[in-house]
Amino acid sequence: MNYSKFGQRITEARKAEEMSKTELADAIGVSTATTTDWEKGKIKSLKAENLMNLSRILRVTPEWLYFGKPPKQYNNLPPELQTWLEFGAELPEEKRQMIYALISMDEEKGGGINKQRTPVTSKDRLNRTG
To answer: Among 91, 103, 118, 119, whose CB has the most other CB atoms within 10 angstroms?
Structure first.
């Protein structure tokens, strides 16, 4: 992971929202020093909670923010990911980490959260199991 590019994307999105580093830090619940470190790429890892909060507050997709993959804008997300961004912050950290890991694995396999997928219904699940 190239955290300097990640930091550049945070800076770009923050400035587009006309937010200061302090305002961003306050909105996420971290120190201004932490947001400065993020923007400079001085991190080794990032909690899923912080990635999702950054994405929601800066109105960009987590995929663009973390990986640099389009689409950039939050309003272009599929409905299921919009729901995650809006309500995911309420989940316990362990659950957020699991969901983020699944998104990352999907990306590594050439998938992506913005690929068209056929919704799975309850009937489909029953047919698979028996």
So the answer is: 103
